[in-house]
Amino acid sequence: MRKLFITALMLTGFAFSTQAQEKNAIGIRLGDNSGFGGEVTFQTALSKNNRIELDLGFRNEGNVYYGGYGNNYYGNGKGYGHNDVKLVGIYQWVFDIKNGFKWYVGPGVGVGIYSSKYYYNDKTFLLENKSGAFGVIAGDVGVEYNFKFPLQLSFDVRPELYLSPDYVDARDNSFGPDLGLSARYRF
Fold it and tell me: How many helices (H) and strands (E) does the chain have?
């Protein structure tokens, strides 16, 4: 009986110590910025109030058609679509709110590759296929809830500024507000 009590006490202490030492989280982030996509997301704590988040994401913006010239919507219209793969690293300051809620803010940078199909070039009126690389400067602000078990849910806004002129042409703009919902396992 005494050994059972000591074993239970040690396991309880171990459970509380591992919960207190959760400094990493891994999961998924679903977002919508130039097409719906998912990201594999990883966070690691640098200190009690600072962490780094790495997100590897895939985006797909299907073909978007414009009426263009004439009445035939698809025949004479112009369209584009593109696929992206992007890695973004964000440094975050984390602040407690109350009862498991926290908010965070921070800057980030990233790189990615893209492939666009049926790209509309408004200078020469030609349809093209393009691919290439791009850079990203990002910011991030969000709120998260950490359950008493190792689950974290968060909602964030990540404004992104794209640095490649070709990628900006494929997207039709150089700025994108990426809204995301994440679920992560803390360990």
Answer: 2, 8
Residue range 1-19, pLDDT digits in tens: 566 445 554 544 444 444 4
- CA separation (Å) from 78 to 59, 70, 122, 149, 150? 21, 11, 10, 51, 48
Contact 52, 92 (CB under 8 A): yes
pTM, to two decimals: 0.75
Q: Which residue has the tokens 């239970």?
A: 8
* DSSP reduced 3-state for 174: coil
Instruction: Tell which residue, 179, 169, 167, 158, has the closest CA to residue 135.
Output: 167
- Computed on alpha carbons and rounded to an integer, the radius of gyration of the chain in Å comes to 22
